């Protein structure tokens, strides 16, 4: 079933007082179009794509800056709010895109993406719509969150892949007394990887409706038994399940992936982009035959559909309303004429990244990542529901409180009930 996720203007939860209260001072650098991307994962392929564009278009140059994930979110909102955003604004859609549109910081793209729309999966394309108009288009791969594992660790301790949550609990118990090996790696120092656990546990317990009520701004929506269950379970994992040093592990430097590759954790719940990271940064592990991937376990008594997945349908490009007309024209040309060109698609596939394009399965054959691409494509194609990452789906006004409170849940500083009270008041 395809997920319709067209953003609606006026959706509850959009910040009343935001960074966009800053006065505009005019966008663009005056030296050509500009784009900001992220570091790590599959982003080197996007950098190389821009390099090819610049080689082929001497009069339409696009300068590119790569920024770490955690720093990017604050930096892009500040720059957009001040009217000094890059020409091409990358987002995960959700609450941020809605706010950009509401504050007239991005421009409609409908006239420039007619052909592109026909190539992209509808379930992904819908994330860039606001009131039926296109304000953002996907730029890279479909990014479901999956469970990676180290088969050597499982074999050494006589463990099997978990199909149910009871299996997970057995694995945690089996590794409880093992020195230097934990059940799960977690980049708790970055906080956002923990959102994936909260999303999956909530969905497996109560289905997609539990969080949809939050997105739609229903009063008291956070006070849901499935969210409380997920928070309680995460506190238990913080005490026994996650690696002891999780609070000092960060994702920007791929430390959580390294713990898996080094055999210090049996599993890692992370986005599909980590497949490329492990192949690039830890090739010995990737080529050993011990690197594997599977879906999130089933909660035996849960009401959620086991086919449901969470993650990012893709990252998206929007075009800044504060950029000059010349800069906007460069961005329009890149989006309409160059995005998802054959060379870049082939490179993405070889890196294990899955472009959100129709009828692409025949191009998996022969790629180094054929098994992973087939797995990820089946996961997305068979999903009853694809939940956008929670920190992107909620309004920017709630995000800071959300992240801070979840970090305190993991550390045991607050109770699940206190978390719920904070979020209901955010």
TrEMBL record:
This is Extracellular solute-binding protein. InterPro entries: Bact_solute-bd_prot1, SBP. Gene3D superfamilies: Periplasmic binding protein-like II (3.40.190.10). The lineage of its organism: Bacteria, Bacillati, Actinomycetota, Actinomycetes, Micrococcales. Pfam families: SBP_bac_1. Residues 1-23 form the signal peptide. It comes from the Bacteria. PANTHER family: ARABINOSE-BINDING PROTEIN-RELATED, BLR3389 PROTEIN.
């Amino acid at each position: 079933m395809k997920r319709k996720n067209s953003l609606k203007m006026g959706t509850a939860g959009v910040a009343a007082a935001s960074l966009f209260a800053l006065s505009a001072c005019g966008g663009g650098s005056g030296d050509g179009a500009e784009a900001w991307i992220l570091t790590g994962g599959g982003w080197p392929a996007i950098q190389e794509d821009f390099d090819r564009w610049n080689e082929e278009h001497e009069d339409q140059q696009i300068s590119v800056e790569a920024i770490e994930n955690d720093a990017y979110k604050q930096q892009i909102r500040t720059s957009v709010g001040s009217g000094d955003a890059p020409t091409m604004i990358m987002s995960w859609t959700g609450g941020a895109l809605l706010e950009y549109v509401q504050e007239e910081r991005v421009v409609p793209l409908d006239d420039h993406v007619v052909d592109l729309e026909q190539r992209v999966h509808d379930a992904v394309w819908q994330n860039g719509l606001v009131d039926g108009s296109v304000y953002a288009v996907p730029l890279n791969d479909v990014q479901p969150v999956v469970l990676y594992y180290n088969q050597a660790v499982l074999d050494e301790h006589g463990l099997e892949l978990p199909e149910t949550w009871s299996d997970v609990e057995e694995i945690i118990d089996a590794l409880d007394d093992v020195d230097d090996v934990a059940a799960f790696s977690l980049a708790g120092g970055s906080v956002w990887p923990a959102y994936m656990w909260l999303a999956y546990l909530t969905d497996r317990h109560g289905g997609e409706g539990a969080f949809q009520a939050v997105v739609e701004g229903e009063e008291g929506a956070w006070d849901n038994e499935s969210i409380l269950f997920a928070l309680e379970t995460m506190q238990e994992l913080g005490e026994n399940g996650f690696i002891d040093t999780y609070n000092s592990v960060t994702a920007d430097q791929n430390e959580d992936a390294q713990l898996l590759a080094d055999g210090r954790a049996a599993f890692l719940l992370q986005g599909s982009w980590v497949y490329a990271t492990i192949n690039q940064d830890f090739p010995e592990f990737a080529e050993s035959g011990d690197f594997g991937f599977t879906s999130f376990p089933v909660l035996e008594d849960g009401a959620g559909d086991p086919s449901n997945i969470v993650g990012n349908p893709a990252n998206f490009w929007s075009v800044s309303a504060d950029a000059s007309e010349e800069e906007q024209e460069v961005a329009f040309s890149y989006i309409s004429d160059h995005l998802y060109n054959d060379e870049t698609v082939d490179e993405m596939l070889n890196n294990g990244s899955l472009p959100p394009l129709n009828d692409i399965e025949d191009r998996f054959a022969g790629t180094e990542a054929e098994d992973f691409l087939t797995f990820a494509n089946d996961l997305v194609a068979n999903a009853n529901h694809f939940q956008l990452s929670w920190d992107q789906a909620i309004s920017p006004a709630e995000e800071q409180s959300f992240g801070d409170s979840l970090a305190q849940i993991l550390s045991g500083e607050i109770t699940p009930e206190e978390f719920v009270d904070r979020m209901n008041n955010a």
